[in-house]
Task: structure prediction
Amino acid sequence: VRRNPGEAEFHQAVREVFESLEPVVAKHPQYADEEIIRRLCEPERQIIFRVPWTDDAGHVQLNRGFRVEFNSALGPYKGGLRFHPSVYLGIVKFLGFEQIFKNALTGMPIGGGKGGSDFDPKGRSNGEIMRFCQSFMTELYRHLGEHTDVPAGDIGVGGREIGYLFGQYKRITNRYESGVLTGKGLTWGGSQVRTEATGYGVVFFVDEMLRDAGDSLDGKRVVVSGSGNVAIYAIEKVHQLGGVVVACSDSAGYVVDEAGIDLELLKDIKNTRRGRMSDYADERPGTRFIEGGSIWDVPCDIALPCATQNELDADAAAALARGGCTIVAEGANMPTTPDAIRTLREAGVRFAPGKAVNAGGVATSALEMQQNASRDSWTFAHTEERLEQIMRSIHDRCLETADEYGVPGDYVAGANIAGFIHVADAMMALGHI
Ligand code: NDP
Result:
């Protein structure tokens, strides 16, 4: 805390991992001797830069850009870019730190990093978004490369922004280096299933949790927070597997739709028109929009927080348990507060952390890198099958590791320990880097 003052989210993420690692260090003192944990907490490199751009009225605007290159023991830094006004160093570091373990858990050759800006895309024109992305990349390009650092999207960064970023990278470097960014469009180096991957992966993971208990998604009532990339494709896969999503949200409020969220309408509003959940309620008969309030008051069997960090607190956890919820699986990064996790556990609700549950996005990014490196492109069905296998094997790895360390059924400990051992062993093999 003294070394990284004021970075509350980073402290929270580190504390959660540390708590899980006590049995590991007890069993394998070499990790303590090698100061692996302290080295893991210090990013290899942190880049902070000025992003000036011109708005439609001709005024100069100024934002701050970040890229935290956290750990490259397993491969090039890999992790998304977030454009949201709440972004500051503490957020980027918490996300980058989590990314190290998540990427290790996928079993793929990728290190951990994260970046972004305090730029607020809301209400900005297409031209403004493009000029911002171009200015952002004008500094960032010198730190990237397919063997060095490979960003992707996150909150506020989707296919459109990746396109503008890639265009500027190509223009400055005079290299069509497809492997430098993931989440690209299908006609210019992108992978099938990348858009859907995080949300689909979340639901494959939950399906595996249910199977493990001799159950299935069929007929389950599900609540999903958010209505962005992760939420939309989590809803789609829940519906494909026989569940029904009865509520989703944005930062202004939530919609309850007992008939099941109409995905065509939701995609049209969010992806095409860039509208709001209140528009959904206006256009869909029989639904209600609740401004403010907590989506976790809606009774459900399964809750999937897919919006942002710390969106599910202890009161919300208690409400979920009262409403009969039996599984909470994190689609977003760290959406559940530590108090909420305790409350869920005490109430017997099974809980699975984002670094395992939402790893399908980055895993499919690694599949995109593989396709770019071999100048190949795979079919949707083949790529989705790979994603499904990866998610089911992450699930099993979490449970096996939890068993091995005497905390059966503890997905948090299982994910933290399995990810840690993978990256720690590589760090030791590479010497004191
Ligand atoms: P999007 O920008 O597509 O969507 C974010 C959604 O969350 C929007 O509905 C947004 O509502 C809502 N939201 C964002 N900030 C807040 C806030 N402070 N309070 C309430 N609601 C908020 O982002 P993604 O779907 O890509 O990301 C969602 C989460 O998933 C993040 O935690 C991200 O780190 C994580 N994630 C994403 C991956 C990916 O592949 N995209 C991979 C792994 C994790 P509004 O429009 O009103 O702001």
In short: Residues 380-404 form the longest helix (25 residues). Residues 195-354 form a domain with the Rossmann fold fold (CATH 3.40.50.720).
